Amino acid sequence: MTISKRSMGFTLIELMIVVAILAIVTTIGVPSFNTLIKDNRLTAAANDLVGALQFARAEAVRRGRTIQVGSLDGGVANGLRVWFDENGNGELNEGEELRIVRLATASGLKVSGEVDGSSVAVLNIGYSPRGAVKGGSMRITLCDDRSGNHGKQLSLLASGLLRSSSGIACSN
């Protein structure tokens, strides 16, 4: 069996065509991948906050006592702290902390909060033993460095119901 000289490899033209096709696919794919990464960061941050709020509500019902949720390190942009006010003094004391959720604001994430329609930097709410919210309804908006309808919003009603919305308008 003899092998013809023509079937022993690739020609330069074939190789150049493959490289050109790879360049085109990469040019199209990289911006989409960046968008996917930014969307996943927003979703992960929103899910972290939802988890903390659902944990606080479940703990309030389980313990039959009020569970507090407050912003971390002076602002909701840093995350949330869930704690149980064991001695009833309304302040966080050593040993009362149940869970901390930190947000990665270094990745361009912008977080803002409002309670009963008023914008606030520091959030402080409580869940009653029945799972309802003490301190009014709350809204947390998460945006990144993009303009447009890319944000996410968490709405916590006074009943304790938590809703997550996508496609919230953000300004850069």
Please characterize this protein's 3D structure.
Its main location: membrane. Residues 45-160 form the General secretion pathway GspH domain. It is a single-pass membrane protein. Belongs to the GSP H family. Keywords: Cell inner membrane, Cell membrane, Membrane, Methylation, Transmembrane, Transmembrane helix. This protein is an alpha+beta fold. Helix content is 30%, strand content 35%. It has one helix and ten strands; from the N terminus they run αββββββββββ. The protein has one helix at residues 12-63, and strands at residues 67-72, 75-84, 97-102, 110-115, 118-120, 124-127, 133-134, 138-143, 148-156, 162-170. The strands form two sheets. Strands 3-2-1-6-7 form a five-stranded antiparallel β-sheet, with helices on one face. The mean pLDDT is 85.
Tags for this model:
alpha+beta; transmembrane helix; methylation; 35% strand; 172 residues; membrane; 1 helix; N_methyl_site; five-stranded antiparallel sheet; cell inner membrane
Show the helix and strand layout.
Elements: H1 12-63, E1 67-72, E2 75-84, E3 97-102, E4 110-115, E5 118-120, E6 124-127, E7 133-134, E8 138-143, E9 148-156, E10 162-170
Antiparallel strand pairs: 1-2, 1-6, 2-3, 4-5, 4-8, 6-7, 8-9, 9-10
Membrane topology: Single-pass membrane protein
Protein name: Type II secretion system protein H
InterPro entries: N_methyl_site, Pilin-like, T2SS_GspH
